[in-house]
Every structure is written in C-alpha cells, then in structure tokens.
Amino acid sequence: MPFHNNICPVPFDQQPLNEYKALKKSPLFEFSTMEFPKFITRLLVIFFIIVGFGISVSFLSANTNKISLNIVSYNILFSLLSLEAMLIRLYLGWSYVLKRLSSASVFYEESGWYDGQLWIKNVDMLTQDRLVGIYQVQPLLIRIQRLLIIISILSILLMLSLLLIY
C-alpha cells in the first residue's frame, strides 16, 4: 500500500496491516482463516495423521503382533496435545496481530533492536486497523480459544481415565 508508505515511517513489514496480511498468507495460519467446517476438517485430518503415524511407529517398534488399548490411548493423548500446541501457536500469533492492530501507537525498529521508535497512528489508519482487528482477527481468536478449551478438556479427561484404568 503506497498510502501507508507515504504517511507512515514504520517499515513496510512492521506495519500492523501488513503483518496481518503476511500472517494470513503463511501456511500454518492460512487454514485457520477458512470457514469453520473446513477448519475442523483440517484439524481432524491432522489429528488422524498424527494418530496413524504414532500407532504405526508403536506397532513397528513393539515386539508384539497386536496393538493394545494402552498404545492407542497414549497415541490419542499425544495427538490431542499436539493439536493443543498448534492451537496455542495460532492463538499467540493472531493475538499479537490483534494487539498491534488495536493499538493507537506502533513500536518499530528501523535497523535493529537498539534504535526502536514509537509512532502514533493517524485517525484513518487507526480506524482501518481496528476494523480489521474487530471483524477479521477477533472472530478467529474466539474460535481458536473455544477449540482450545474443548481439546484441553478432552485431553484432561483422557489423562484422568488413563490414570484410573492403568
């Protein structure tokens, strides 16, 4: 956006709107912007790939001809924890961008950590950034937060059941 470059002294890659666009295009964060059914489908595919890989590694490394319920349970638990880690990463990335979009001032570095500057957004840029934050980023954060709570509860329940059974 040349409009931002003429008014804003912040380097192009450090402008909040451009950080949002770059994050939206990155492979990990891109699928979190899809519609909810597609997002859930991708998460389920990742979950089943991790479970399948874990069970196959357990089967190949074990000296038995069968897979026990214990091995499957621990692989499911590992897969849930992997999804939690991925969702935490998504949440942290989007919350950082939301904070930068919502803030009235932008901290930026011109050439390194030693020469940081603070720039106050003009009204038009602040309005545009806050609208993007409210209508584009905040719904993603709410969705990721809810999924993180659900997966955390499932992980805790599975851990408790494993402790009680075994």
UniProtKB/TrEMBL annotation:
| Keywords, in A-Z order | Chloroplast, Membrane, Plastid, Transmembrane, Transmembrane helix
Question: Where is the signal peptide, in residue numbers?
Answer: none
- Entry GO CC: plastid
Fetch the InterPro entries from UniProt.
CGLD27-like
Locations listed in the record: Plastid
- In the UniProt record, does the keyword Cell membrane occur? no
Sequence intervals crossing the membrane? 39-60, 72-92, 147-165
Q: Which PANTHER family match?
A: PROTEIN CONSERVED IN THE GREEN LINEAGE AND DIATOMS 27, CHLOROPLASTIC, PTHR34214
- The protein depicted here goes by the name Ycf36
Q: Which organism is it from?
A: Trichogloeopsis pedicellata
The organism's lineage is: Eukaryota, Rhodophyta, Florideophyceae, Nemaliophycidae, Nemaliales
